[in-house]
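As a warm-up, study this chain.
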Amino acid sequence: MRELHRYILLATTAVLLVGCGLNDGARQPAPIKEIKPESPQPAPPTTVPPAPALPQDKPGPVVQPPKPAQPPRERVWNWSGAVQPMVGRMLQVGGVSAGSVLLVDNVNNRTNGSLPTAKATQALRSALANNGTFTLVGDQQLAMAKQQLGLSAQDSLGSRSKAIGIARNVGAQYVLYTSAGGNVNSPTLQMQLMLVQTGEIVWSGKGGVERIQ
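Now compare it with the structure written out below.
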């Protein structure tokens, strides 16, 4: 009886072992877990520190550029209004033969300042043009005579004696010597008609010159 129990125990043990083996063969393999690659993490944005603010210069006062110096305004004189009445009175002097040759010298500046007299001389010659009493010495002839004295055509003879001397060289019978004198801001024009042969002053006149501007 004891042998029978041992046999049953052994048989039961064998059956259990076989069942365990069958169960192990039928067991499904555990699924392999798929390992996904980790996605790269985005890099944190690079933060650039702001540039330090530069100090603002305070606006200074606006400096105006210096204005260019204005040239002095040229004074304008009414030479024609001064010489024409005087020339009219001179042409009425008696004892002058019609057609006598007259040397008209440039107007001299005898004022206390700088006074351009070229326009005065031009006005004087214009007033004597076609006068019917005197024949004027030509500009070219007068320029050549001045050149012999070392003067330019624009220079005045400077003195009555020089004017008379050059008048003799050009064959003139009369000389008209004219000068502007007094204050340069209100000059006075003076004329003298002289006889070349004797130096005698046969007529003289004086008058103020009006300033236009």
